[in-house]
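Dear colleague,

Thank you for sharing your sequence with our group. We've completed the structure prediction you requested, and as agreed, I am returning the results in plain text so they can be pasted directly into your records. Please verify that the sequence below matches your submission; if there's any discrepancy, let me know and we will rerun it promptly.
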Amino acid sequence: MGFVSWLLSRRCEGKKRLRAFSSCRANRFRQAVQAELVRLFKEADGSVDNVIHQQCLKDFDRADFIIGRQSFLQGAAALSGDVDGARAVFANCLRSELGSDGADVRFVKAVSALASQISMAHLCSVCFSGPHTYSFPQGCVTASYTIQRNSNVIRLSLARSADRITSFSLADGEFATVSPSSFARQCAEVVIRPASAGAQVESVYVHEALRLVWPNETVITHDGLALDLESPSKFDATLGRVLRGTAAVTCAPFRLLSMALGFVWRLPALLFQALVRKEHVA
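Please find the predicted structure tokens below.
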């Protein structure tokens, strides 16, 4: 009986959709971000003026930004009474973080564009709990971006959080009132490195968590799936890191062997070239 229940749960529509998102979420986000970088790099004119992308400047003070060690919290500029001055400080700080070590201004503009709704829209689209399925009141949704340079790579973190939700609606418009203990969170981390022809996404991590409960604290079930989930789970995330580390250690001897064999394979050609050059000089 337990096996039958498990089999039926595997076939429920909600779990099938969650598995579909989980299986390709990181790859889809990586591809979307890489495509944006290619497009943005081509559109950038290389001018030293207006290096920070306009969408990033528009989103300033509408979200939390952490640039290096400096924080720019949502609404702080408006409270100060000088939004333009605060935006100029923000732009200079971001330009310095992205453009140190003489980085290409096109790289700075392309990456700065990702610290905005541009990348947040892609994050939402690849997550099971995104607004394409579960829509929340705008006032309870917050966004944050963190940009930090580590040597010659840029680490971009973004997060979208809806906490203390009191209601939500489905894609078909169905509306429901829920307990304030409900929440929805999506986050991602992207590592970007300058490349010869633009920028290259090196690694991506995407995570989401969703908990929707009725006012009586009963977990809501939608299409057979209890909406109290985390993907990937802490266990899956830890296992993935362990397996990636194990694979790297296991493959290291084979990579070294491949390099050695490659050198041996090229050695006759190198000796022949040296002999030809010697005879030519003689």
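Summary note from our side: Residues 234-281 form the longest helix (48 residues).

Kind regards,
the structure core
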